[in-house]
Amino acid sequence: MSDFFSFSRQEDAGSPIARIREDQILGERVALLEEAPLFSVLHPRDLRSLATKFQVVTYRKGEVLFREGEPAERLFLIDTGRVKLSIRSSAGQELLIGVLGRGQIFGELSLLDRGPRAMDASAMEETRVFALPSDNFWTVLENRPALARRLLELMARRLRRADQTSQDLVFFDAPTRLARRLLELAEEHGQAEARSESIRITVRITQEEVAQMIGVTRESANRLISSFAGRGWISWNDGYPVILQPETLIRRAR
Q1: Are 189 and 156 in contact (CB under 8 A)?
Q2: Cα–Cα distance measured from residue 141 to residue 23, given in angstroms and rounded to the nearest whole number
Q3: For 16-70, what is each residue's pLDDT tens digit?
Q4: Within-domain flag for 55
């Protein structure tokens, strides 16, 4: 873990160069907070103050940020890379809850009820996050009603999504679940292709991760993806899926 501001040994912390570097780093952090749905409601002055409270942490691919049952001490905001949230059954089967990218937060729910972590979080690639200690989070939350309102909105959205995932596993077949997960990924990470109705998902997803999302084996996920691609609905695009026929996929997801 590194401190928020770090400078070379040759630089005096009070030197002009050090101050310029500090301003640049702080400006980058503020820009990220402005992108984050949770913190974007804050005044620029508050964002600048909050940015100094975060600590920078870098994780290697596959490294665990926290595990289910561990005490919750920090909230995380993603700068670069991807993080997956998952839970495991008693038999060891993994269910992928979500894939998060730049500007998205996680770990906040456990801070609110002061309980243990409810799921695992691990880096899907080299990932850099900003970690905010729980005390700092509670201070800004208690003093900024707009932030509390936005947090409630995001929590409600996340809980609705979790409920929908549970219902999907019970009531829908695997092809429908795949269509629904692809559409969710497109909503969260989609980018419209120029001069086309196609939507490109900007985070890389492996077929194993797709299998974990929809509760099937990797072989079954491979067959479903091939079936969707063969029908012209999607292009797998080396793990960056492109939805070629959004309207058709929406109908299949019903």
Answers
A1: no
A2: 25
A3: 777 777 777 888 889 999 988 889 999 999 999 999 999 999 999 999 999 999 9
A4: yes
pTM score: 0.76
Pairing state of beta strands 190-192 and 199-201?
Answer: antiparallel
CATH number of the domain that residue 210 is part of: 1.10.10.10
- The answer to whether residue 4 sits within a structural domain is no
Check: CB of residue 82 under 8 Å from CB of residue 203.
yes
Whole-angstrom distance, CA of residue 21 vs CA of residue 246: 45
Please give the pLDDT value at position 12: 53
**111, 132, 167 - which closes a domain:** 167
Provide the domain count of the chain.
2
What 3 state SS string does 43-58 have? CHHHHHHHHCCCEEEE
Q: Give domain status of residue 3, yes or no.
A: no
Q: How far apart, in whole angstroms, are the C-alpha atoms of residue 216 and residue 211?
A: 5
238 Cβ contact list (under 8 Å, min separation 6): 204
The runs of H, that is alpha helices, within 98-217 are: 108-113, 134-143, 145-171, 174-189, 207-214
CA nearest neighbour of 127 among 51, 66, 61: 61
**Residues 6 or more apart from 59 whose CB is under 8 A from it?**
65, 81, 123, 126, 127, 128, 129
User: pLDDT tens digit string along 35-47?
Assistant: 888 899 999 999 9
Confidence of residue 112 (pLDDT cuts 50, 70, 90): confident
pLDDT at 7: 34
Residue 37 domain boundaries: 16-167
The CATH number of the domain holding residue 56 is 2.60.120.10
Same domain assignment for residues 201 and 226:
yes
